[in-house]
Amino acid sequence: MIPLSVEQLADVVGGRVLDEPAAAPVREVVIDSRRVRPGSLFVALPGEHTDGHEFLADAAARGAAACLVDETRAIPEGVVAVTVDDPGDALLGLGRWVRDTVDPAVVGITGSVGKTSTKDLIATAAGAGRSVVANVGSYNNDLGVPLTCCRLEAGSEVLVAEVGARGVGHIASLADLLSPDIGVVTAIRGAHLELFGDVGTIAAAKGELVEALEPEGLAVLNADDPRVAALAARTRARVVTYGVRAEADWQAESVTLDAVARPTFRLRGRELTLAIPGEHNVGNALAALAVADALGVQLDDAAAALADARLSRWRMELVRTRGGITVLNDAYNANPTSMSAALETLMRMDEGGRRWAVLGQMAELGPAEAEEHERLGRLAARLGVDGLVAVGPLAGSIQEAADRAAPAGERFAADDVDGAITLLAERLLPGDVVLVKASRAAGLERVADALVAMFEGPA
To answer: Is the pTM of this model over 0.90?
Structure first.
């Protein structure tokens, strides 16, 4: 972050300083008091289960340079406070000010699936030639995006920002904050139907990113997804496409996978290999290379960086254990499209043993919830998964649908994470590969962690 005195910070956000500030400047912004350290600005926000204003004294004790607080709230003694009408709005304003002051090239990424992985790959590829700041994990909402902007420093050249939406208008609002130069759309599918209602509304929301681009900007669109390709008609910017199956400006050819489903492909006379599993990540890598090229990074440099790229945690995280099993931890999130891609990746892996899928609930599917979980069970059976452990409230639906689709195979339903771990501990053998995937609330990363520990840790 650009260092600011507390008085300068107050000027930026239109606030008032209470108590005598220390001489130390504000050097970072946090919204979790447990992450406060000397030089932090703690933004006190009301939350679903707690309120940041309850932790002002704790933030001060940890060395916060200042706390950004609601002007109507009581301030404990000894807390350096900058009072504002609304701390959330003030955070947005601060993020905008830092973004405008540093003035980096801004890349916005959205999509129903693949946006965090694509964000990670873009940051890696662009980082081969430029100074890059990107979202941590999937900090992609009206808190995460301004927090990411605040991490920009005077020498930052590129801001890579994933943007999410929980309704129409959300992406437009974040794009107004970011003023993106490049907009990337990965996919438009039936994710978060509980929030949007139908895929047409999802397309309307995702298209807000490319609508925000200026004529001199660049829209990078997935040609393999017809709904994404159709967004070309909704932007004033130049359009570049990428794809594996459809004809595209950035097109992969001759895609092959190794024993743990890591892809190799040809692009513009070069052979590229990714360190992350999944054929679907070829498209994400193409988007990253297209963006890096637009930012002036040499293709060979960007490709070399992608060969060693790693994704955010719990996303296609491949762990070979000393005890002989391989765990594919993709437990951060899930929807029908990403579940299908993960299962297909599992079935392309061959470590000499069986292929197990540990699958939990896909959230926010609305009225389609029951149907989609039954479809998931049928898909696992059709693909020939050797062992299936369904976890959580819809585990029975997944298991029963798999049994109806194909009687062969070991299928189990576990009420919770501990039950799944017990089932697997009794059955896994060296050479087995285990996919772990569900929506965030299911917490299935605990299964992956337990299996790695059970089989003597990473090799």
So the answer is: yes
